[in-house]
Structure formats: structure tokens, C-alpha cells
Amino acid sequence: MVDEFDVAQALRGGIPDRARAWAFVRDFAAAWAEPLADGAGTRAEELERAEEMLGLTLPTALREAYSLLGTRHDLTGNQDPLLRPSELFVHDEFGGVLVFRSENQGCAFWGVRLRDLGQDDPPVFVQSRDGWVRYLERVSLACVELVLSETLLDSEGRLYNACELPASLIRELPSRFAPVEFPEYPMWTGKEESPVCWFSAPGKLLRLDGLSDHSWLHVRGSTFADLESLCAALPGHWVRGYSEPLEADELPF
């Protein structure tokens, strides 16, 4: 049940390897969406066609990710989607990067350097406003982040909200919600919105983009009641309804 599932508790001890990453993805999908069925993965033939077209071999971790949840677009395709195998491409910058994820308007790309493709679980880089920068140390970590973020920013948006959090509330976040043991990583929009940190409570998921005053906090509840209580715990100018009134001449962003 999603109202009993706490991401921070589920990731206590971190993600030391691929097996732990995929186990978490399975547990998270079962709690926050639907269990991963046998048919949720990309067929092996599609991956082989993509490799043939590209003239390269996918890293083991990326192949495993596609095989696990490649057709579950509810978990991978709401905002900055995992590319379909036929959409994979090599970006010429940074010595060549195999791109497997794209910002929804093509403003940023996530991928693995060609020189790292021989590793089972290689590091992932993101093309940010500061150029290509290291994103996360392993593909499996990047896939966990993808599932968390794409679920947080679900396409319907009924259970999602966001606000620019003042510094005073940023400092209080760790005492109000449990920090998730997930590595900090950069936001593609630049250093001002970095690092990205996660927090949670049962049935509640929070992502903070940056640590400066008025950094954006994105939240999702498992139910509308969860979302309401989450927003009430952090009074601010929420994008979709507010827990404190706006002045007449203020805008909600």
C-alpha cells in the first residue's frame, strides 16, 4: 500500500549495487503505481535492433533497466522520459555520449560516455547549462532517480504541487521529513538549482532542487489528503492552491 510505503525507509542503507536498485524499483512500482508484470520490459529483439542500428553494445545495467520497465511509461515517461530503444542516439559532444533520456523539450540529455560502455554499470552524465557534468555514479542509480522523478511529476498532476521554499523552511525539512539515502546530484538547469535532495514520509514524496533561499520544492502525495497535509506542514506560496494567502499584486511563482 502506498500510504504505508516510505521511500526513506525503503532506501535505508543506500543502493550499493544493481540488484538493490532493481529490487527497490519493483517495490516502489507496486506501492505507488502497479506491480511490474513480466511484460513490462522491452523485448530483447528491440534492444538488439537498437544496438545494431547504433553499432554498439548497451551496458548491462541499461539493458536490465529496459528489460525491467521499458514499457512502463507511467514510471519513466511523464516529464523527462526514458527514450525508447529506437530513439537512442549518440551525442557528438564530450567525446561521444550514448543518450538514453531527454528533457521533455530537448533542453538536456542524460547518457553514458562511449568510452565507458564496456562497464556493467557506468557513470551517467547530463548535458546541463554548465556543459556536460557528472550526474550519478551508476546507470542503476540514474534509473532509480528517473522512476522517482517521473512518478513525482506524474502526467495527471492531481496529487502534485510545488513551491519556492524559503531558507527557514529548507533548514527545517530534515526534522519534518526523513532524508532519503540517495546521492546528491546536479539539476540540469544549473548550479543555482543544485544539488537535488529527496525527503519522504509514508505516502509522501518530496524533491528539493537546490539549497539556496527560495529553492523549488516538488511534492506528491499518495492521496489528496496526504498532499494537503504535506503542504500545510510547509506553509508557502504553492503553485496549486496555497496554505498562506497571496497579496493582491503577487503572482504564484
Labels describing this entry:
single chain; 253 residues; alpha+beta; five-stranded antiparallel sheet; 8 helices; 10 strands; disordered C terminus
Descriptive account of the structure:
This is SMI1/KNR4 family protein. It comes from Streptomyces macrolidinus. The protein has helices spanning 7-10, 18-32, 44-54, 60-69, 73-76, 139-152, 167-176, 224-233; strands at residues 89-91, 97-102, 109-113, 124-128, 131-136, 160-165, 178-179, 196-201, 204-209, 215-221. With 253 residues, the protein is an alpha+beta fold. Strands 1-2-3-4-5 form a five-stranded antiparallel beta sheet. A hairpin with a 5-residue loop joins strand 1 and strand 2 (97-102). Helix 2 (18-32) packs parallel to helix 6 (139-152). It is globular. The two termini are 34 Å apart.
